[in-house]
């Protein structure tokens, strides 16, 4: 059993910021994670992180990773958490065949991409169907691609792929995009991306080896049409896969983990941060802020348990 002051599950911006803050308070802290960056690492271009005019998602994730490690936080990669349970005053995390214990845990494993869930989606995964524009975009140089979705991720992917592919279609099920105004303007007014409104993909078809076309249906007119394509980029949002913590913490009707202003869940020694909380705006900078709050509160809790002075809240405004 490996013992820590704090275990963090997941290394997106929320988890890594928590790791950074906890390490800088000299906590013995480890992040258990499958990968680095989470959703950020699949975001091609980032233009709204304060102080940085432009950065690629993978570069921002790598910079956060290096800074967190440098601060003294351990990060165990390719580590899938199988179970979290309470034993006495400690939490035991089973991950990658090992056991870790700590009096405090921060959950920051984010959301999982929602599946398109139509015929051909599974069959052609990795053979033309992809859920990561940043990872697979370069494979589609001078090819035709279809992006599915109407949120910021789909717009980002379409604008990124426009620089690589010869033709980009964006298929959206409504007649309005949901995203940042500046991005909506860019994709609707200043790009060659062809938006197919009010339409859903009913099937991804291929020759058995690779994707060759998508079948679409206009949900207002019921009209059906096929588009020849080499790739299908699915960007239809995210869902939370939090079954392994459901018996420990309360969730809302959407499955998001409910937290208070300290990012504490219904179990006071388990915190949750980032996109798996009900925070209404899922943004990198907001996730980072939540991570910092949780780490500082976790530090104070640990200090209280040890009978040491806490870091205290700023301006003395909060008394918990
Ligand atoms: P999202 O905002 O939930 O958007 C998902 C999109 O997919 C929606 O347009 C939705 O349609 C559509 N959709 C959902 N299920 C579908 C289905 N089964 N078939 C077809 N279309 C479907 O997800 P996201 O774009 O991945 O963004 C996630 C979060 O990250 C958001 O809060 C977003 O603001 C944030 N983000 C921000 C940035 C940025 O600030 N630059 C970049 C990326 C992500 P409806 O519109 O009809 O619901």
Would you write up a description of this structure?
Helices cover 23% and strands 27% of the residues. With 320 residues, it is an alpha/beta fold. It has two domains: 2-111 and 240-305, FAD/NAD(P)-binding domain (3-Layer(bba) Sandwich); 129-234, 3-Layer(bba) Sandwich (FAD/NAD(P)-binding domain). The strands form six sheets. The protein has a five-stranded parallel sheet with strand order 6-3-2-10-21, covered by helices on one side. α1 packs parallel to α2. The mean pLDDT is 95. Bound molecules: NADP nicotinamide-adenine-dinucleotide phosphate. Residues 43, 48, 114, 148-154, 156, 173-174, 178, 180, 200, 235-238, 282-283 line the site of NADP nicotinamide-adenine-dinucleotide phosphate.
CATH superfamily of the largest domain: FAD/NAD(P)-binding domain
Main beta-sheet strand count, sense and barrel state: 5 strands, parallel
Find the count of extended strands (DSSP E, 2+ residues).
21
Shape assignment: elongated
**Largest beta sheet: what is the strand line-up?**
6-3-2-10-21
What is the residue-mean pLDDT, rounded to a whole number?
A: 95
The CATH architecture of the largest domain can be named as 3-Layer(bba) Sandwich
Q: Please give the CATH class of the largest domain.
A: Alpha Beta
Q: Briefly note the CATH topology name of the largest domain.
A: FAD/NAD(P)-binding domain
* Percentage beta strand: 25-35%
Low-confidence stretches: none
**How many structural domains does the protein architecture include?**
2
Helix content: 10-25%
Q: What ligands are attached or bound here?
A: NADP nicotinamide-adenine-dinucleotide phosphate
Order of helices and strands: EEHEEEHEEEEEEEHEHEHEEEEEEEH
């Amino acid at each position: 059993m490996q013992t820590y002051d704090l275990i963090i599950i997941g290394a997106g911006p929320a988890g890594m910021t928590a790791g950074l803050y906890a390490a800088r308070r000299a906590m013995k802290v480890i992040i258990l994670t499958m990968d680095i960056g989470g959703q950020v690492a699949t975001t091609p271009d980032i233009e709204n992180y304060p102080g940085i005019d432009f950065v690629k998602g993978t570069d921002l994730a790598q910079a956060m990773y290096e800074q967190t490690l440098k601060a003294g936080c351990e990060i165990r990669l390719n580590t899938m958490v199988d179970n979290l349970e309470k034993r006495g005053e400690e939490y035991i995390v089973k991950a990658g065949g090992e056991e870790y214990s700590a009096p405090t845990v921060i959950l920051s494993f984010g959301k999982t991409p929602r599946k398109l869930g139509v015929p051909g989606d599974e069959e052609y995964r990795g053979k033309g169907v992809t859920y990561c524009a940043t990872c697979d975009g370069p494979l589609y140089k001078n090819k035709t691609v279809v992006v599915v979705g109407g949120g910021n991720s789909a717009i980002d992917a379409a604008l990124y792929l426009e620089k690589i592919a010869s033709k980009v279609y964006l298929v959206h099920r409504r007649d309005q995009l949901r995203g940042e105004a500046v991005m909506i303007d860019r994709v609707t007014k200043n790009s060659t991306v062809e938006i197919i409104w009010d339409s859903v993909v009913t099937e991804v078809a291929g020759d058995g080896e690779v994707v060759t076309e998508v079948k679409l249906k206009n949900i207002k007119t019921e009209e059906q049409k096929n588009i020849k394509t080499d790739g299908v980029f699915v960007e239809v949002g995210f869902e939370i896969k939090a079954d392994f913590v459901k018996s420990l913490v309360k969730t809302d009707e959407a499955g998001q983990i409910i937290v208070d202003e300290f990012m504490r869940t219904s179990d006071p020694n388990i915190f949750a941060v980032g996109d798996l909380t009900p925070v209404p705006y899922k943004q990198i900078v907001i996730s980072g802020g939540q991570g910092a709050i949780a780490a500082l509160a976790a530090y104070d809790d640990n200090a209280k348990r040890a009978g040491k002075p806490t870091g205290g809240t700023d301006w003395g405004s909060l008394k918990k």
